From TrEMBL:
<keyword id="KW-0472">Membrane</keyword>
<comment type="similarity">
    <text>Belongs to the ustYa family.</text>
</comment>
<keyword id="KW-0812">Transmembrane</keyword>
<dbReference type="InterPro" id="IPR021765">
    <property type="entry name" value="UstYa-like"/>
</dbReference>
<comment type="pathway">
    <text>Mycotoxin biosynthesis.</text>
</comment>
<feature type="transmembrane region" description="Helical">
    <location>
        <begin position="6"/>
        <end position="23"/>
    </location>
</feature>
<dbReference type="GO" id="GO:0016491">
    <property type="term" value="F:oxidoreductase activity"/>
</dbReference>
<protein>
    <recommendedName>
        <fullName>Oxidase ustYa</fullName>
    </recommendedName>
</protein>
<dbReference type="Pfam" id="PF11807">
    <property type="entry name" value="UstYa"/>
</dbReference>
<dbReference type="GO" id="GO:0043386">
    <property type="term" value="P:mycotoxin biosynthetic process"/>
</dbReference>
<keyword id="KW-1133">Transmembrane helix</keyword>
<keyword id="KW-0560">Oxidoreductase</keyword>
Amino acid sequence: MRFQSVMSLALWLLSVINLLYILRSFKALISRPQLQYSYRGHDHPQYLPFSDELVEMVIEESVHYPLQGLASDGQWDSLSSESYGYVRLGTDDRLFAVTMFHELHCLRMLNFAFGKEGIATPEHIRHCLGYLRDGILCTPDLTLEPGDFEERDFEVERMGATHFCRDWSAVYPIMDENYAVWKAKPS
């Protein structure tokens, strides 16, 4: 009887150890980032390869990006990348749009809606409003902002709250390098 109890205990312990090993292996398998993709179908990264390091960004009123006028065009255009927000990834140079640039494009379409007839169609504006809404809800910024913004004198109190954001300025060199590499390839 004692031998049977010892064997049962040993078998039970081995089963527990085996289960822990399987769970650990499974966890390592699902948490390991996939470094190789075929870029066919859904086999591609979900995000542009980029650092998740956060930087401080003070939100403040700006004299830039007026609603209309020639000064507006250059300022809004400066927010785009040379590739217009597209990257090519993988050996076949599969084309992807980067969400940040799609969102900036939508802001530009809203800017066009204020003055340039025919550039921003109602359908495009509707798409952009929905796209921006979904983007805001997908990554909500929960920074607390001081007081009622309508009571602030923006000429005197230009600065608002400090936010912690992904470093958007670091995206541009990545986009430019990707575009330059693609452009340098023989047709």
